[in-house]
């Protein structure tokens, strides 16, 4: 049963919400068994992730103000994101549509997709949301206030912008698609499908008709000081093979304090759910949680600002991503 006291709704996996995943619970997604030999790059030099760069990208987004749909900050930040990715990507796609948020309001939705090695058959989808929740509904003092969304939104974009900079400088063998999705965080707990609207739109209308990737990696709240990342239950159900590979790489790199194997039992309704169930791409969620399964204390509060962002956390997530992409993208 899911508890509805949080967005990215947390609950104990019962099989009700994720029963459709049963046929995808193999350790290796169907159709990817023989990919390792075609893209293995054991001797490749893995770029060094620049945490200063990722931090600056995060800070720049926050400087625009809360990136709330239908506000000037949404447009300003979107244009900045497009300008950053355009010289880096082999192909850049921008999806502009309108989606309906709770209350019946139609708001603009801007998804930005940067593709690298577009002709490569074996692909990884990297995604994160870039919008900000309209109000700090978990704040102890004023739940109507707007907040910066430095960790919840901007940190994932900061990591992926720095990854894109490295992909441009040194192309990997694997194809990489970076999806920045909009209007993720405007939902209400009474309707879990009111979240992740940009992702739901993309999953039904991908940037390339018939788009497929071997698997996807979702980043959400990946910059907070002292973050820990546990294996979320739905991610294990749909994408256990690539998820365990990612955790193993992180631990091999010395990041065991961050990437934990303990099972919290938490299942989270986040963007990966719709990539798994609509786009049918096995996708796992890298999302900071406490051992209890709750989110960090700054989640959806006015404390989610640049003071909680830690370059070490950005470094750990970003370097693990680069290690997987360049050295063993499909060894799971």
Automatic annotation (TrEMBL):
**InterPro entries, alphabetically?**
Peptidase_M28 (IPR007484), QC/QCL (IPR040234)
Pfam families to which the protein is assigned, alphabetical: Peptidase_M28
Could you give a GO molecular-function term held by this entry? glutaminyl-peptide cyclotransferase activity
Instruction: Quote the Gene3D superfamilies the UniProt record gives.
Output: Zn peptidases (3.40.630.10)
**Positions of the Peptidase M28 domain:** 111-324
Keywords recorded for this protein, A-Z: Acyltransferase, Transferase
Q: Which SUPFAM superfamilies match?
A: Zn-dependent exopeptidases (SSF53187)
PANTHER family under this entry? Answer: GLUTAMINYL-PEPTIDE CYCLOTRANSFERASE, GLUTAMINYL-PEPTIDE CYCLOTRANSFERASE-RELATED
Identification of the protein by name:
Peptidase M28 domain-containing protein
Q: Which organism is it from?
A: Chitinophaga silvisoli
């Amino acid at each position: 049963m899911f508890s509805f006291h949080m967005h990215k709704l947390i609950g104990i996996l019962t099989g009700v919400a994720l029963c459709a995943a049963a046929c995808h619970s193999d350790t290796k997604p169907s159709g990817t068994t023989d990919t390792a030999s075609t893209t293995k790059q054991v001797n490749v030099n893995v770029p060094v992730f620049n945490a200063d760069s990722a931090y600056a990208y995060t800070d720049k987004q926050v400087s625009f103000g809360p990136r709330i749909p239908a506000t000037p900050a949404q447009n300003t930040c979107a244009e900045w994101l497009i300008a950053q990715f355009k010289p880096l990507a082999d192909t850049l796609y921008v999806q502009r549509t309108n989606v309906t948020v709770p209350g019946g309001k139609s708001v603009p939705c801007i998804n930005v997709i940067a593709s690298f090695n577009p002709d490569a058959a074996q692909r990884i989808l990297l995604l994160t949301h870039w919008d900000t929740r309209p109000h700090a509904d978990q704040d102890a003092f004023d739940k109507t206030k707007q907040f910066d969304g430095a960790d919840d939104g901007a940190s994932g974009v900061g990591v992926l912008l720095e990854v894109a900079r490295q992909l441009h400088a040194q192309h990997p063998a694997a194809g990489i698609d970076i999806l920045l999705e909009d209007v993720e965080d405007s939902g209400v707990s009474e309707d879990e499908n009111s979240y992740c609207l940009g992702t739901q739109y993309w999953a039904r209308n991908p940037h390339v008709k018939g788009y497929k990737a071997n698997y996807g990696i979702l980043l959400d709240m990946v910059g907070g000081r002292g973050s820990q990342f546990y294996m979320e239950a739905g991610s294990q159900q749909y994408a256990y093979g690539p998820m365990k590979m990612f955790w193993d790489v992180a631990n091999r790199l010395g990041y065991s304090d961050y990437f934990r194997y303990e099972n919290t039992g938490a299942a989270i309704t986040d963007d990966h759910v719709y990539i798994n169930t609509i786009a049918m791409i096995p996708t796992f969620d890298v999302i900071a949680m406490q051992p209890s399964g709750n989110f960090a204390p700054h989640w959806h509060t006015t404390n989610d600002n640049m003071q909680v962002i830690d370059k070490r956390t950005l470094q750990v997530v970003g370097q693990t991503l680069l290690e997987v992409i360049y050295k063993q993208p499909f060894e799971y």
